[in-house]
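can u do me a favor
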């Protein structure tokens, strides 16, 4: 019997499809297991390379398999797709993962530690509650608009409108009761968000990597904490440009025949981190534009000049890209931040 050297796992909520190959690339085993039986199956096998797509529970499986002596590799789903030779199903996905993980030039996702994932829980909860708060404000604004109460598009205006509706006895009692419940729900969400902000600020103060990243203008505690918790090992990227490309901040390229064609940014990678960097770029650009020309650093002067040359929104992406490259330097090198030399 051929010895299994490579295994591809297609993870799902209740079942896991498995494809195992030997050193020559021949399929040795192909089966479907229930999730709770996967680790027991690997206990009985010699050490091998195990590949899986980046998805829910992939990091947990990778840590558990590493503890059993196996080499776990997490692959971005877009890198697995070209290796699927037939229609999409669980068995073909597992075979494609098994073929992809054998490629020597493939880039893998760094496995996050349990502590990193626990720190990201606060960010995920905050993100969800922020979206829920926005939906709640829009719902409140829509309910009041049905009774002729239209307010500006801001959270403060919507809340003020809801409080004024409570005191207006000309409105139906059922509406005022509903508005009261909605305002109470929004107050609870504000409390949750405030608690998350306090925990994230504490995380940013306690993590030396986050402290280094927060030195950049436009990178606050929220972004610094998220980067420190998400980027397990920045040295896996060869350069700052590769790190920016991982975040989806570089142009999509379609070049042929010696002609270079660049399009929109790829928008690959972590959408949460990319959004934080773009929002931070907005803050950095506004701060640079408020400074007098003689007081601007080279980086701030570059931001203003770029804004005049290509416009506001493209400049935000350019600044986010620049910040991503500088963040890679701060995470991989034990050097102070030289703002004046940063734009070279």
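np, heres the sequence
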């Amino acid at each position: 019997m051929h010895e299994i050297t490579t295994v591809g796992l297609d993870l799902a909520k209740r079942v896991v499809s498995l494809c195992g190959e030997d050193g020559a690339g021949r399929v040795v085993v192909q089966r479907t297991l229930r999730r709770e039986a996967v680790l027991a199956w690997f206990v009985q096998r010699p050490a091998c390379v195990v590949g899986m797509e980046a998805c829910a529970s992939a990091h947990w499986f990778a840590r558990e398999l590493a503890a059993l002596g196996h080499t776990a590799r997490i692959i971005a789903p877009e890198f697995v797709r070209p290796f699927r030779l037939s229609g999409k199903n669980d068995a073909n996905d597992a075979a494609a993962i098994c073929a992809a993980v054998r490629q020597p030039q493939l880039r893998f996702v760094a496995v996050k530690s349990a502590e990193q994932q626990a720190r990201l829980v606060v960010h995920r909860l905050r993100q969800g509650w922020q979206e829920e708060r926005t939906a709640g404000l829009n719902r409140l604004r829509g309910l009041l608009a049905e009774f002729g109460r239209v307010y500006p598009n801001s959270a403060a205006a919507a809340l003020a409108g809801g409080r004024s509706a409570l005191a207006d006895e000309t409105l139906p009692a059922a509406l005022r009761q509903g508005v009261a419940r909605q305002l109470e729900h929004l107050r609870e969400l504000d409390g949750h968000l405030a608690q998350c902000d306090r925990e994230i600020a504490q995380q940013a103060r306690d993590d030396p990597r986050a402290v280094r990243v927060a030195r950049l203008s436009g990178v606050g505690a929220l972004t610094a904490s998220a980067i420190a918790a998400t980027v397990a090992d920045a040295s896996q990227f060869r350069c700052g440009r590769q790190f920016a490309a991982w975040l989806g901040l570089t142009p999509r390229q379609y070049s042929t025949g010696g002609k270079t064609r660049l399009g929109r940014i790829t928008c690959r990678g972590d959408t949460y981190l990319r959004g934080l960097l773009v929002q931070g770029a907005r803050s950095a650009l506004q701060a640079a534009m408020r400074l007098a020309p003689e007081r601007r650093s080279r980086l701030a002067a570059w931001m203003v000049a770029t804004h005049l040359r290509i416009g506001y929104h493209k400049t935000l992406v350019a600044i986010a890209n620049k910040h991503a490259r500088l963040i890679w330097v701060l995470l991989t090198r034990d050097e102070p931040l030289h703002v004046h030399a940063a734009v070279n």
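The radius of gyration is 25 Å. hope that helps!!
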